[in-house]
Amino acid sequence: MRYRIGTIALLGLLVLVGAVALARSAGLTAPFPGIDRVESAAEAARNGDRETVLLVADKPITAAELTEMEHWVAANLAWMGEVGTRMAVTEEQRAFLERQARLIEEYGKPTVALAALIVDRTLEAEAQRQGLWPDERTVQARVERDRDLAATSDDPRIEAYLQAFGETAFWQVNYPRVVALEIAKERLYQERTKDEPDPTRRQARWLAEERALVLGAPIEVVVPERLPASIDAAVEYLKQYYDLQSSVSSTG
Amino acid sequence: MRRVLVVIGVLVVFTLVAGAAQAAYGQLFYEWSASGIKPRGGLWSYSGNYLGRTDWNPLPGVTVLTRHESSVYVRNPTSDIRSLGTVLYFIHDGQVRRTVPSYAWTRTGCGTVYPLGGLVFGGCTTNSQYLGSFDSTRRAQDRGTWAFFLCDAAGCYEGVSRDRTWTLW
């Protein structure tokens, strides 16, 4: 009798442990909000139309990039919309995310995508003008580091993006271009803010610098009918975006 | 003779108390990292270490917590920690006891020297609110989750490190 109770107790314990493990595993693999848009972004980046739609600071923005960025904005918005159900934000952060999500919805995803690419090209042009663009060796070292990093990451978006893009094409063709811009932006940030030790003031200064650069960049539309949103709307969104970021940054 | 015995007795008690008090602390060291993808396919990454110290004073029948201090030092080679939303969570006994947003972190918190390379921020949990949340009479577990959300003109995206647990004492 005692043996039977022990066996039942052991089986019960095993079932309990299994159930807990299953629940944890299900939590880790739960669908990530906006992941379908991440896959669409990768497909647009790989197969999209390379026609130049506009120039920002003499740097081209293609139709494919506009489409890709619109998918990224949608993916971000999906996450921002669901953030209220997650634990990992404070009340202040939740309020900030809601304000930024409302701002994106107010201007629309095509406008925000255009605005984000205007920021990219402006910073790219400024980094090159200042001689901060990384050389091939630096870029290759970062590609190798990030390739190792991606292999160990938990972020399901990395896997989704890589699968949709194709691993070889991504690491050999796309990522060197992507990461060169990342490094250039990091260097520009360091260069413009290096003498400010306080992180809050440093961020405030960077936002002011970036805002001045972006809003002062020359924009030339090449194919007006392929422009997904008006330049004026994108610039207006950027002003609102910097106002929002600066208000949070300055209040800490 | 009696006076000598009293002195020896006091010394023995002092030695025992000092020995017990010296043993009554725990230190933890733990390394972690998190990474994710940005719009346009770039990767962001953070890594860092957690250093925790807990002191308590064992008295007969009760253990009184006297200090709990946790510090986290973050390396962020992709420089996106400046983005809003980087926050460190200290979870004790299943409840979030304190969240430390990046702007509130201190570079000199807990007196630790931060390492070379990358951007480094430190967070420190030494405060009465955190201390007050402990049931100092029983063992418990401390957990840390590092949750990030990073923002740019294309919106905000998130990253959360895996929950890690360590026994405090």
Folded structure, characterized:
The complex is a heterodimer of chains A (252) and B (169). Chain A has 252 residues and is mainly alpha-helical. Helices cover 75% and strands 5% of the residues of chain A. In chain A, a hairpin with a 2-residue loop joins strand 1 and strand 2 (59-62). Chain A is globular, with a radius of gyration of 23 Å. The termini of chain A are far apart. In chain B, 16% of the residues lie in helices and 50% in strands. Chain B contains 2 helices and 9 strands; from the N terminus they run αββββββαβββ. In chain B, strands 4, 5, 7, 8 and 9 form a 5-stranded antiparallel sheet that branches. Chains A and B meet through helix 2, helix 3, helix 4, helix 5 and helix 6 of A and strand 1, strand 5, strand 7 and strand 8 of B.
Percent of residues of chain A in helical segments?
over 70%
Work out the helicity level of chain B. Answer: 10-25%
Radius of gyration of chain B: 21 Å
Estimate the mean pLDDT confidence of chain B: 60
Q: What sequence of helices (H) and strands (E) makes up the elements of chain B?
A: HEEEEEEHEEE
CATH top-level class of chain B: Mainly Beta
Which segments of chain B are poorly predicted (pLDDT under 50) over 5 or more consecutive residues? 15-23, 103-123, 126-134
Overall outline of chain A = globular
Q: Sheet with the most strands of chain B?
A: 5 strands, antiparallel
In whole angstroms, the N-to-C terminal distance of chain A is: 66 Å
Given the helix and strand composition of chain A, which structural class is it?
A: mainly alpha
Number of domains of chain B: 1
Specify the structural class of chain B: alpha+beta
Q: Determine the most extensive contact between two protein chains.
A: A-B, 65 and 41 residues
Q: Write the element-wise H/E pattern of chain A from the N-terminal end onward.
A: HHEEHHHHHHHEH
SS element count, helices of chain A: 10
